[in-house]
Design goal:
Layout (H helix, E strand, L loop, with lengths): L5 E3 L4 E5 L2 E4 H24 L4 H30 L2 H6 L14 H19 L3 H25 L14 E3 L18 H21 L3 H4 L3 H17 L17 H18 L8
Parallel strand pairs: 1-4
Antiparallel strand pairs: 2-3
Amino acid sequence: MSDLYVVWDFDPVIFTVFGRPVVWYGLLWAVSFVVGYYIIRKMFRREMPDKQDAADALTDRLLIYMIVGSIVGARLGHCLFYEPSYYFAHPWKFLAIWEGGLASHGGAIGILLALYLFSRREKMPYLEVVDRLVVVIALAGALIRLGNLTNSEIYGFETTMPWGFKFVRDCPPEWSVEMVPACHPTQIYEALFCIATFIYLMYAYFKKNLVFKKPGMMLGVFFIVIFGSRILIEFLKRPQVDFENNMILDMGQWLSIPFVIAGFWLCLRKQKKVTE
């Protein structure tokens, strides 16, 4: 066993208001929407230099679709993909989002559906809308995984690597620090892939103008990198629910495969040439 590791005893609660905890996970979710809003507004203002007010109004409408689509999709994804029997037996629990339980795959599906409705309403090409949004979704993914880190949740199997984390708060209180195994901080692994994807997509939009040159390419890269890395990292991650224990591939991996296939199709499909 390695003598090098990180003792992670981070308090997930920032402060309490009227008996309700305000947690880092929720704050990071909120920050992802705020930062994403300003990035998207910058994009629309760049594309509509003579219509700044219209660009801002378009961003406001898009934000509403994004919030509803991501939260509803992530919640339903968790309930239907990971614990369907429990939630159908207790249907009122579908709404108990404060108890935790959000699935990234469900959030992705919810966002894609919400953006379809948005593009129809605004009469904008669907792929061009999604290409813009995956930029901020990649950043949001990094912040959400860091939120999982603050909660000491969704981490990996034991490791002897020097960057292993001892998640003290997720172990029995009677255990000493020495008894806690060092585990793969898979939240950080996923966050790093998200950050790298965000940097590339920012470059692709602002420098290469891929939204208009090759619609769908940015979405394809996002699918391949984010969900492809998810498939690999899941091999290091502890099962989230009991039924995954005997699966060759866990639920997260099975759900990621269609996104990766769609990503390759988007990147390799033939497109009409667009003149600059």
